[in-house]
Amino acid sequence: MTPPVSDPVGLEVRWDRLAAATDEAASTMLRTAFSTIIRESNDYTVVLMDRQGRTMAESRAGIPGFAALMSSLTALVLDRFPARDWQDGDCVITNDPWIATGHLPDIAMITPVFHRGVLVGYAGTAAHSPDIGGTPSMGATDLISEGMLIPPLRLFRAGRVEQGIKELLLANVRLPGELWGDLEAQTAAHAVCRRRAREFLDDFGEPDFERFAAEVHAVADAAMRAAVAELPDGVYRAGVDADGVEGHPTHIACAVTVSGERIAIDYTGSSAQVPFSTNSTLNYTRAYSMYPLKILLDPATRTNWGSYQAIHVSAPEGTIVNPRFPAPVVARHLTGHLLSCAIYQALAPVLPDRVIADSGGAPALRVRFAGIDDEGRPFAQMLFANAGMGASREKDGLSTTAFPTNSGSGSIEALEVTSPLRFVRKELRAGSGGRGRRRGGLGQDVEVHNPTSRAVQMVLLGDRERHPALGLDGGQPGATAQAVLESGQRVPLKSISQLAPGASVLISFPGGGGFGPPQDREPQLVLADELGGYVAPSNTERHP
Amino acid sequence: MSRTVRIGVDVGGTFTDLLLHDPVRGLTWPGKLPTTPHAPHEAITAGIARLLEETATPAQDVAGVVHGTTLVTNTLLERTGAVVGLLTTHGFRDILEMAREIRFDTTDLHARPAAPLVPRRLCRGVRGRIGADGTELEPLDEADVLAQAGDLLEHGVEAVAVAMLHAYRNDRHERRVRRLLARAHPGLPVTLSSAVAPVLGEYERASTACLNAYVQPLVARYLDALRDDLLAMGIDAPLRVMLSGGGVTTLDEAKEFPFRLLESGPAAGAIAAAAVARRLGEPDVISFDMGGTTAKIAMVSGGEPRRTHDFEAGRVDKFKPGSGLPIRLTVVDMIEIGSGGGSIAAPDSLGLLKVGPRSAGSVPGPVAYGRGGEQPTVTDADLVLGHLDPATFLGGEMRLRTTEAGKALDRGVAEPLGLDRIGAAAGIVEVATAGMAAAARMHLSEHGSDPSDFTLVAFGGAGPVHAYGLAKQLKIARIVVPMRAGVMSAYGFLVAPATVDQARSLPSALTGIDWDRVAAVYDEMTAHATAVLGADGTEELRVRRSADMRYVGQGFEIEVELPGSGLGQVDAGRLQRAFGEAYRATFGRCLDGPAEVVNWRLSARLPGHGVTLGCEPATGDPRRGVRDVWIPGHGRLEATVWDRYRLRPGTEIAGPAVFEERESSCCFGPECRIRVDPELTLLVDVEGAGS
C-alpha cells in the first residue's frame, strides 16, 4: 500500500485536470497534423513538465513509451539552454536519436510555460514527420545518410520563428509543406498545454507546479515500487532471436533483476551494433522496456516521471540496443519492439496470469508503395496492416492488432482513392495464430495488384520471416511472415523491389504465439475455431 | 373540432416520461410511469391514457405523437437483435472483425474490442468489383450472390447487410444484390451500405449497415405494434419518431433506417435546451443533463446543438472511445461521462477519491433510497450537504434516509481517507463536478470555444443540483434552470423539427471539383428530403448545405457551411475562405495551402413547434423555510428554501437560496441573483464569475 496522500480530493481533482490538458493537446495535434504516420500509427506524444523537465502529465493517446523519454530529453536540452535564458514563446527542436525518440524522422519540441512572468515548466511533444531527407535505402551504413540531423536548436525565440533555421530545415526535406504543417500541429499542441497549465495555476491559486509535481511524482513512484515489491526477488532471463539482417541475426539477451522495490533490465549479451538501420539507441531501448513493464506491473496509475524511477534499463555500448553514434537507426523498431517479447518471456514464470506470448507485430511489418500513375501523377502510400497479438493465459490473442505499438489500419477505399493500386484481398490469415490452450491472434493476408503500365516501387521493412512469434507455457509459435509474388517468387522482408505492371504481391502478416498446451484447448473452442475458419485452411477453399 | 394536442413519449431505461401539450388551452402536462421493459408499449399506452384522462382530452383531438426509444441502444447492448449475414466484396469478408486494428486502451494489455454483430461464418465475399472512381472492374457474380445468400439462410440468417467496396461512389452492385435477394427470398430484410451511409470508409459503412440490419426486424415490429395500439385508443394522428440528430421522422423512415434512432433520448434533451435558449435569446449555451448514471454535455451555438456525423455504439467500456462499433450517423455532438446521482464514490489504491463511473443506478440506487444500496453515491453526498430535502424528494413519494447516507459516507469515504463526513461529501461533489468541468472544457475546445462565454442550461434529476458548482468551475456567469427538469427529453420531442440529414462522399481538391456532379448530388438529396418530409409548399423547408473539408493531406475534416444560397454561387475561392475562417475558429490559426472536400452534406427540416414548459403558479407562500446548505466555494450557509410551483414570474431573489420542484432542486450561493421568468424558468446571474 502506498503512503497516504495529504489531500485525497484536491490531488485527484488537480491530477485529473492536468492529465486532461495533455489529452486535449494530443487531440489538437492529431486533428491538425498532415502526416498520415502521426494519425494512422499514433506515432507521437504530448507531455507537461515541471521546472526540472520532469513529466507531470502525459497524453494517454500516442506511443506511451515516448513520454518516458521526454524528461531525459528535456534535461539534456536544459544543459544546452539553461533555464535562465528561456523566454516566453521560445521553442527548441531536435531529432537527435541519442537525445530524442531514436530516429531522425521523429521530431521533438520543447516550449517553456511562463506564469506571471516566471518560468514554471515545459510542454513537450514528439511526432513522426513524413520525410526528413536523406537517401531511402536498405544499405545506409551511417546516420548521416538517413537524413538531416537536427541538434537541439531554437526554432522560435519569444514567439518569432528563427527564419534561417526554418529555411534550412525545409530546404532539406522532400515534403516541406507537410513537415511544416506537422511542426505547426506540434506548436498548436504546445499552445493548448501552456494555456491549460496557466489556468490550472490560476484556478488553484498556486505560484508554480513544484508542490503538485512533488506529490504526483511521489505517488506514481510509490505505486510502481509497490507493484515491483510484489514480485519475488531474483534474476529472470530470456533470449529472443530475430532475422536481423543478412549475416547479422539479432539476438536480444535480457536479464530482469528484481530487488525489493527496484527492477533493473539489462541487455548484456545482445548482438553487437550493425552497419544497418536496425540499431536501437539506448533511449528507444528504454522507451520500449518501460512501456511493456508499466502496463504489466501498474497499469492503472496515470504515468509521470515518478512512474519510471524504480526501473533501470542498461545495455553495453556498442550493442544493437545501445549503438554508438553515428550508427544508422531509422528502422530501430525492428529491434526495439522485440524487447517486449524478451521482458514478458523473462517474467512469465513469476507473472503467468499477466504476460502475453510473443506478438507477431513485435516488430511491426511496414510496407510502402511509390510510383507514378498512368496520368503521370506521383504517389506514395504506406500500407498500415497488423499481425496477431500473443495469447495470454486466459484469452486468445487479438487478431490483426499491433503490439507494442498501436498503429491501426486505414481504409482500403481511401488507399485506392489516393493511389492507383488495387487491393485484391485483405483478410484474416487462417491458421496463422500459434496453437495453444489459448490461441495466438491471427495475422492477415493482403494482396496488392499493380494495374498501371509502370512498375511500382515496393519497400518492405519487417522481420519474423524465419523467426516466428513464440508461444508460452507449451503454446505453439504463430506463422511466420512472408511476401510472395504471383510467380511464386519470395520477396525478402527487408528489401526495395519493383512490382511490375500487372503483377500482384501477397503479403502475409505473422500470427501471435499461443499460450498453454494445444491439447488443453476446450472442445467447444476447437469447434468454434473450425466453424469460424480461424484454423482450417480448407475454409478458404469452401469460399473461394 | 381542433386537433391541437401533441404528446411526447420518452421511453428510458427506468421510467417512461410523457408530456402533453395543448397550445389552445395553454396546457403542458407531464406524466411518468415505470418502463415495462419487455413490452414498452404497455407503459406508453397506459401513460397516454392517463394523460388524456387527467387533461380531459378526447383521443381524436391528438394531432401527433412523437416517440423516442432506447430500443436500438438496448438491443445492441444486450445483443438481442436479428441473426445477420453480411455480403461484401470478395477478399474482404473480415472487414468487421479486423475493424480498425487498434487497441482502444493502451494501458490495458488484456482489453478486448467489441465483438462484431455478425460472426465470421456469416460474413461472405462475393465476386464483383467497383473501382475507386466508380467504374466496374469486374461484373457482379450473380450466381455467387444467390449461392452465398442461400447458404446464409440455411445458417439461420434473418436479415442481410450488403457492403461492397466503393459502393458510396457507385451503388449498382449493391442495388443488384438487393433485387436478386428480393426475387429469391421475398420478405428477407436487406440493408445496403450505400443506402444507410453513402460515404467513404468501407469498415464504418459496413458496420452501419450491419447495425441497421441487426435491429430492423425488432424495431419494425415494435413500431407497428405501437401504431396499432394508438389506433385502438382512437388516436389516428401520425406517429413520429425521434432521431439521433435531434430531428423527428416518419414511421416508414424509422422502420427502414432504425439505426438512426440510437441515443435519440439524450439528443432530445439537447434539442430542448436549445429551444429554451432560443426563447431566452441566449444563442450560445451548454446543455447539461445529469441523471442517475451519467452526465451529458452538449454545446449549443447559434441556437442549435452542435452535431457530428460519427458515432460509436455499444461500447465495451462506455467511457472509452474506440471500444464500440463505429456508426456513420448524424448525432447531436455530446460528451457523456460516468458522473450521475447514482455514481459510487470510493478511494482508489493510491488513496485518491474517485467518483464513478461505477453506478448504483436506480436499483439498488443511492443508500438514501433505502433499497439496499450500501456504497455512498453522489446523491448521498448531496443529501448530507443539504441540497435535497428528505421529505419532499420526488414530491414526497420517496423519503430519503439521511442517517444511513451519512453512515455510508463515513464508512466508504471519510474513514478510509481521514476526512470528516461533510468533508467527504463535499469532496465527492467536488471530484464529480471537476470531472464534468473537464469534459465540458475538452468538448468545447474541440470547436475552439471556451465555456466561460456560454450560459449553462441544467436539467435531468441531478443537473440542477450541480449546476452552480459546475458554473463556478467553468467561470460561467449565467445559469438557466427550466421547470420540469425530469421531462426535458419528452419536451425535446415536442419541439424537434421533422428533419432529414444526408451526406455523399466525392473526395476532391477544391481546385478540381466537378460542380455539375456536386449539383446533381444535391438535387438527388433535396428530392429525397422533400419526399420524406412530405414538404408540399405549405411549410417552409429549411435547407442547410455543408461540406466536410480539410487541408490536402490532413486526416480530419471540419464541417463548413456552404456560403451563398445556391450552388451556382459557390466558387472555390469563397469556399476556401469559408474553410479558412472555420479552421481558424476551431484551431486558432489557419495555414497556407489548398483545401479539399470529402463529403457534401444536406440537412433539410420543416419548422419546429413552439411549446411552453411553464404552468400557472400555485397560490400560497413560496417560502418553505430556511436550512443549512453546504455551498461549493462558500461552505455551510443558511439558505432560504423556495417552492418553484408557487414562485410568480418576475420574482427576484438573492442567494443563498434553494429552489425545489418535484423532480429536482438547485441551490445558489450568496453572489447570485435569481429571477423567475414567465415560464417559471430560473435565470441566475453569478457575480464575478468571469474574473
TrEMBL record, chain A:
**What is the superkingdom listed in this entry's lineage?**
Bacteria
Can you say what this protein is called? Hydantoin utilization protein B
Molecular-function GO term, any one: 5-oxoprolinase (ATP-hydrolyzing) activity
InterPro entries to which the protein is assigned, alphabetical: Hydantoinase_B, Oxoprolinase-like
Example of a GO biological process term: glutathione metabolic process
> For this UniProt entry, which segments traverse the membrane?
none
Which cellular components does GO assign to this protein? cytosol
Q: Which lineage ranks, top first, belong to the organism behind this chain?
A: Bacteria, Bacillati, Actinomycetota, Actinomycetes, Pseudonocardiales
TrEMBL record, chain B:
Can you supply a Gene Ontology BP term from the record? glutathione metabolic process
Q: Which SUPFAM superfamilies match?
A: Actin-like ATPase domain
Q: Which residues form the Hydantoinase/oxoprolinase N-terminal domain?
A: 6-182
Q: Where does the signal peptide begin and end? A: none
Q: Where is the Hydantoinase A/oxoprolinase domain?
A: 205-499
What does the record give under GO molecular function? Answer: 5-oxoprolinase (ATP-hydrolyzing) activity
Q: What is this protein called?
A: Methylhydantoinase
**Which organism does this record belong to?**
Prauserella muralis
